[in-house]
From TrEMBL:
Pathway(s) annotated for this protein in UniProt: Purine metabolism; purine nucleoside salvage
Gene expressing this chain: punA
InterPro entries: Nucleoside_phosphorylase_d, Nucleoside_phosphorylase_sf, Purine_phosphorylase
Residues the record lists as binding phosphate: 45, 76, 101-103, 133, 229
Species the sequence originates in: Candidatus Neomicrothrix parvicella RN1
UniProt cross-references to SUPFAM superfamilies, sorted A to Z: Purine and uridine phosphorylases
Record's keyword terms, sorted: Glycosyltransferase, Transferase
Enzymatic reactions: a purine 2'-deoxy-D-ribonucleoside + phosphate = a purine nucleobase + 2-deoxy-alpha-D-ribose 1-phosphate
Nucleoside phosphorylase domain boundaries: 92-285
Family: Belongs to the PNP/MTAP phosphorylase family.
Pfam families: PNP_UDP_1
Binding positions for a purine D-ribonucleoside per the UniProt entry: 210, 252
GO molecular function list: purine-nucleoside phosphorylase activity
Name of protein: Purine nucleoside phosphorylase
Residues making up the signal peptide according to the UniProt record: none
Length: 300
């Protein structure tokens, strides 16, 4: 049985981001009928059909949860599914699967971008898997292929950590991002999908695509992939102690390295790759779920 969470936060009354996240987590737990979610997954463009291969047990619309905004981005939904990831020993892990996200370019600010991740943490999640569509700066990586994210360049000019602090023990602003994308999660993903290329993701503010000069600059700074999501979510996740796995679907050569860019091309490539991505994500989630160390309670 669920233990009711006392709710005192009311976003309409101007409560802070962590109180709003706690309220949303309580609403989520009640709507989905369980409080044992340990893994949260965000489905970016192209990744939506992955839901079809996962065992959805309940669904809620983010419209019914405090602090969420309807995603205005192409190729995104607005549901949160509760999903059972089975493991060979029958223990299994319960996951939250978000079909939409808020992008910084929607103009709602970094706290709105971070809200989903903070809600997942408040709901008891330990690990987040962030998927997205990205442009590629590396020849030979191949449009339509997924890639693992090893690290990021936050080129948005924003941080989600400038506002109020989270409750203890995570009440620190100066978050260590050394392992922003955790190597142990990447190892597990690599076991499930050995041939994926790996690289650094540069997150731009958007919504306009980058100029060729910006891509040359990002490449010189060490980026391999470019997109307009994920970097603030990853920072917010690390602040509240979540481990992050990032996977990008390469939908195009970055600006100046191929043809002209269009959002429709991104959606079309993502659509074509969807069946393969669904298999990949199911395999990766199964590999994470089977790694029991990720789900143990920390020693008290
Ligand atoms: N740039 C930014 N975001 C993107 C791209 C890109 O080339 N492709 C898919 N999302």
């Amino acid at each position: 049985m669920l233990t009711p969470t006392p709710i005192s936060a009311d976003p309409a009354a101007g409560h802070g981001p962590f109180e709003t996240a706690r309220l949303a987590a309580a609403q989520l737990t009640e709507a989905l009928g369980r409080n044992d979610h340990r893994l949260a997954v965000w489905l970016g463009s192209g990744w939506q059909r992955a839901v079809d291969r996962l065992g959805v047990t309940a669904t809620v619309s983010t419209a019914d949860l405090a602090g969420f905004h309807r995603s205005g981005a192409m190729g995104h939904g607005s549901d949160v599914h509760s999903v059972r990831i089975e493991t060979p020993d029958g223990i299994g892990v319960q996951a939250l699967v978000f079909t939409g996200r808020t992008h910084l370019y929607e103009g709602l600010g970094p706290a709105a971008v971070a809200h989903g991740v903070r809600t997942a943490a408040a709901a008891g999640c330990r690990v987040v898997v962030l998927t997205n569509a990205a442009g590629c700066m590396r020849e030979g990586w191949g449009v339509g292929r997924p890639a693992l994210v090893t690290d990021q360049l936050n080129l948005t000019g924003a941080s989600p950590l400038t506002g109020p602090l989270p409750p203890p023990p995570n009440d620190s602003r100066h978050v260590d991002l050394t392992d922003a994308y955790h190597p142990r999660l990447r190892d597990l993903a690599r076991n499930a999908a050995p041939d994926l290329p790996e690289g650094v993701y540069a997150g731009f503010h958007g919504p306009e695509f980058e100029t060729p000069a910006e891509i040359v600059a990002a490449r010189r700074l060490g980026a391999d992939l470019v997109g307009q999501s994920m970097v603030l979510e990853t920072i917010a996740a690390r602040q509240v102690g979540l481990e992050v796995l990032g996977i990008s679907l390469i939908t195009n050569a970055a600006a100046g390295l191929g043809g002209k860019l269009s959002a429709q091309e991104v959606v079309d490539v993502a659509h074509a790759a969807a069946p393969e991505l669904a298999v990949l994500l199911a395999d990766v989630l199964a590999a994470l779920a089977a790694h029991h160390d990720l789900w143990q309670d920390p020693p008290s």
